[in-house]
Design goal:
The complex is a heterodimer. Chain A is of the alpha/beta class. Chain A contains ten helices and twelve strands. The longest helix of chain A is centred in the middle third of the chain and has 15 residues. Chain A is globular. Chain B is built from twelve helices and 23 strands. Chain B starts with a helix and ends in a 5-residue tail after the last helix. The chains are: A alpha/beta, B alpha/beta. Chains A and B meet through helix 2, strand 7, helix 3 and strand 8 of A and helix 9 and helix 10 of B. The complex binds adenosine-5'-triphosphate and magnesium ion. Adenosine-5'-triphosphate binds next to strand 2 and helix 1 of chain A.
């Protein structure tokens, strides 16, 4: 589904990604861990097509297409979803309006008709229930005045409604209280499917107790320096990153 | 999504959809302004003597006045002798008595504008007065309104049929000598709308006037007078379009609102005069004096404006809060793109006790557009317990446009409470990227953000027109972001 090959990317003359390799197949769940500033958000932004990154080498194939050639909205319509580390507020734009516009854009891209208002509302209500979100959030501006945790829930709500193929979650678990973490995990688990892949960026092994990953990777200075199964996360939690770095340097 | 400069510029070029002209025979006065022309206008309109006298007084005063130059505008000199001050579509009869007698070409014009005058096809519950160049061509729903006692007709008809009402109220809010453009208008005004809502009557439908400039080298000078008598309520909307021409055309209107005790007037404008082309050629010069007098206790006047057109906009819809507990509101969205310039805002003059005013101004600048908010809040010594809330937000799209804010405050009563908030922001890359990541195109994302920015104002428009206003913004902005 996703194949990243020797990816190099720079921001304002600073090389952040330095030869990153990663392959993700449908149905898999990958966790990416790594110290602050190692390039995790940069990777997700590059995959989603954010402006301001210069790709200096390497390639990214997504569903047999050159992902880097596609416009950001095209990537989204082809099923790439990014749950942002810091979701932005858009005052005055209804949350429900965004959901509808997004969903209809995807449907139009697939040659499907717009969902009628009643069906759409039913779908959204069902997903909100799963996320234990109050309906009042629909009428509020996108993320406007939402608490940190509410913003994260809202990201997962959007993911559930839009039903993407490749979900990239950038620290969706950060800033969540214990109950909210369970709710968000439920949302992510509900999204697991044979034709969908999930890439979770996280600092905490705790999330992985709820959403069990098939692979865990360590990103360090713009490269994946170690990969393993979920036991790697436990080991990292116990021992930190130092030993991995030393092992990689050896 | 590396942004290419030329792509941005290409997007900035948005089409003006109302740029066609109607080929119609018209009676047009020769260019120039003098007392004879004013007599001609008055004679053509079969006006009573007081009206001619009033016009001449205004004209004589205008001769001694100079154009105002304090606004943040760059204006090419206007040759007032090169303009024709009267143009009317030539009809078989002098004034059509019903829609059936209106020239079919005119009816077609309004169909094309999306303002079908045939009552069967009209927007639900909206009565329309259509003003073409200088004259009103049709007013719909008059019988139904008459049943409620509401007078809604062209200004010319009002002068003939209700001279006592006109004489009593005309110029009591905007005096002839108020300013250069108001004096000019008072001398040569051609037509406009007249509304009188009697005591205790809630006007049963929205009233609306559509102004259309068609003839070349003519100015349009409408005069609108709306009176809500004690306890009355009326909601009124004006819309304006003009053909696409290379020369600038002058539009200098005056609107007077009078709200008696316990009365309420809502006045909404969706202004879409031709803004000129991408190089700044042509477009309407829009110099308008709009003022409401909340004369009676507990009266209320609300101005809502969505200004997307005109090469130059000079306009400050104001409220004189004379009655105790009277309320004035001003909600404005002004958009400038390409070389458009707008200097707009409001004046809230607090005189009565416990008077309250709210100002919400949203300025959007794109291209090389210049957008200025100019507002005055004056609390006079008699206005004990007055309150004002002002919110002034500017949104910039691109690097070549400008936003300016000129708030003036004069407080002569220590009990006054004034709040002022102002923000200037750019459409942020973060917001655009967020929406695009959800599958929304850059253009739609821009429109969503702009509409969100204007929401507090659109909320105050009548339903049908809120949708129209949103679409208008979308067209005026077509992809103004790269
Ligand atoms: N626009 C930019 N200009 C300069 N440096 C940048 C910019 N964007 C990112 N960086 C730098 O790139 C590095 C990687 O940032 P990134 O946000 O990808 O880290 P991260 O792994 O997501 O960290 P965290 O765990 O703290 O979220 C950091 O050192 C950061 O300062
Ligand atoms: Mg990060």
């Amino acid at each position: 589904m996703l194949k990243i090959d020797n990816l190099h990317a720079r921001v304002e003359d600073k090389e952040i990604l330095r030869g990153l390799n990663l392959e993700v197949k449908p149905g898999e769940v990958h966790a990416i861990m790594g110290p602050n500033g190692s390039g995790k958000s940069t990777l997700s932004n590059v995959l989603a097509g954010r402006d301001g990154y210069e790709i200096t080498a390497g390639s990214v194939r997504y569903l047999d297409k050159d992902l880097l050639e596609m416009a950001p909205e095209e990537r989204a319509r082809e099923g790439v979803f990014l749950a942002f580390q810091y979701p932005v507020e858009i005052p005055g734009v209804n949350n429900v309006y965004l959901l509808k516009a997004g969903l209809n854009a995807m449907r139009a891209h697939r040659g499907e008709e717009e969902l009628d208002a009643a069906d759409f509302l039913m779908l959204v209500r069902e997903k909100m229930k799963l996320m234990q979100m109050d309906e009042s959030f629909l009428k509020r501006g996108v993320n406007e005045g939402f608490s940190g945790g509410e913003k994260k829930r809202n990201e997962i709500l959007q993911m559930l409604v839009l039903e993407p193929k490749l979900c990239i979650l950038d620290e969706t678990d950060s800033g969540l209280d214990i109950d909210a973490l369970k709710v968000v995990s439920q949302g992510v688990n509900a999204s697991r499917a044979a034709d969908r892949a999930i890439v979770m960026i996280t600092h905490y092994q705790r999330l992985l107790n709820y959403v069990e990953p098939d692979f865990v990777h360590v990103l360090y200075q713009g490269r994946i320096i170690k990969s393993g199964d979920k036991s790697l996360a436990l080991e990292l939690e116990e021992r930190g990153y130092e030993w991995v770095v030393q092992e990689a340097a050896a | 999504m590396a942004t290419k400069e030329n792509e941005v510029e290409q997007h900035l070029r948005s089409e003006y959809r109302y740029g066609w002209t109607t080929d119609i025979e018209s009676d047009t006065a020769p260019p120039g302004l003098n007392e004879d022309i004013i007599r001609l206008i008055s004679r053509k309109k079969k006006e009573p003597a007081f009206m001619l006298e009033w016009r001449l007084q205004a004209y004589r005063h205008w001769l001694s006045m100079r154009e105002p130059d304090w606004a943040h505008l760059r204006i090419a000199p206007i040759d007032y002798q090169a303009i024709s001050y009267y143009s009317a579509p030539r009809t078989s009869k002098n004034a059509p008595k019903s829609l059936d007698e209106v020239d079919p070409k005119l009816l077609e014009t309004y169909e094309k504008l999306g303002v079908p005058l045939h009552e069967r096809a009209r927007l639900a519950g909206v009565a329309v007065d259509a003003v073409f160049d200088s004259v009103s061509v049709a007013t719909t729903f008059r019988e139904k309104l008459a049943e409620a006692g509401v007078i809604f007709c062209s200004f010319s008809e009002a002068v003939r049929d209700y001279p006592e009402l006109v004489e009593k109220y005309l110029g009591t809010v905007v005096p002839q000598k108020d300013n250069f453009f108001a004096a000019l208008n008072s001398a040569v005004f051609s037509d406009g709308s007249f509304v009188y809502v009697p005591k205790g009557v809630r006007c049963p439908m929205e009233l609306s006037t559509y102004f259309r400039i068609n003839a070349q080298n003519t100015g349009q000078f409408e005069r609108t007078l709306i009176i809500a008598d004690e306890g009355a309520y009326v909601s009124y909307l004006e819309g304006c379009t003009a053909p696409q021409r290379d020369e600038n055309q002058l539009h200098a209107a005056v609107v007077e609102l009078i709200a008696e005790k316990d009365a309420e007037i809502k006045y909404s404008t969706v202004q879409n005069w031709y803004p000129g082309d991408e190089e700044g050629r042509g477009g309407i010069y829009n110099f308008v004096t709009k003022r409401g007098d909340a004369r009676g206790d507990n009266s209320k006047i609300t101005w809502t404006q969505v200004e997307t057109g005109s090469a130059i906009t000079w306009k400050y819809p104001s409220c004189i809060l004379r009655g105790d507990n009277s309320v004035g509101e001003f909600y404005s969205v002004a958009l400038t793109n390409n070389y458009q310039q707008a200097d707009t805002g409001t004046k809230m003059i607090h005189m009565g006790k416990n008077t309250r005013s709210t100002i919400v101004s949203k300025g959007i600048s794109a291209g090389k557009g210049q957008n200025a908010y100019r507002g005055l809040v004056r609390i006079t010594p008699t206005a004990t317990g007055a309150r004002n809330y002002t919110q002034c937000d500017s949104l910039l799209i691109g690097d070549e446009c400008g936003a300016h804010t000129f708030p003036y405050v004069e407080v002569r009563n220590p009990t006054a409470v004034l709040e002022h908030e102002a923000t200037t922001s750019k459409i942020s890359e973060d917001q655009l990227f967020y929406l695009m990541q959800r599958g929304i195109s850059e253009e739609d994302a821009t429109n969503m953000i702009v509409n969100g920015f204007c929401k507090d104002v659109f909320r105050t428009l009548p339903m049908e027109f809120a949708v129209e206003a949103q679409n208008l913004l979308a067209v005026s902005l077509e992809g103004a972001v790269g």
